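Worked example

This section walks through a single chain of length 108. The input is the sequence exactly as stored; nothing has been trimmed or padded.
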Amino acid sequence: MGFDSQVWQVRGGDEPVGEILIDDADFPWLSGHFTAGPGYDVVRELFARELALAERDDDGHWEEWERVYDEIRRRVSLVSPDGPVPEFLLHIEGDRAWFRWSDKPFDD
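Given that input, the structure is written out below as tokens.
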């Protein structure tokens, strides 16, 4: 099954955070146009901080990245056209989003 033109949802509780219209699939990553919803302003800075930390290359920043990403995971969920996905790694920058996901929970 192709992913092009699928719409994936980012949700924050009951409020839509945004939608991702898939336009590129490069396994294991999907990416697409991100349209912010009413709940995005609450998590916008978290996503900016997460991406800045992911792009750094110095000692100790991964522990900080994990704390920030844990907060993102606490606040948002990712929903495929088939329903919620239990595990995902999602980046949002401007009107672009890219992510990978698993349909099974990761082991801690």
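What to look for: Residues 4 and 23 are 5 Å apart (CA to CA).
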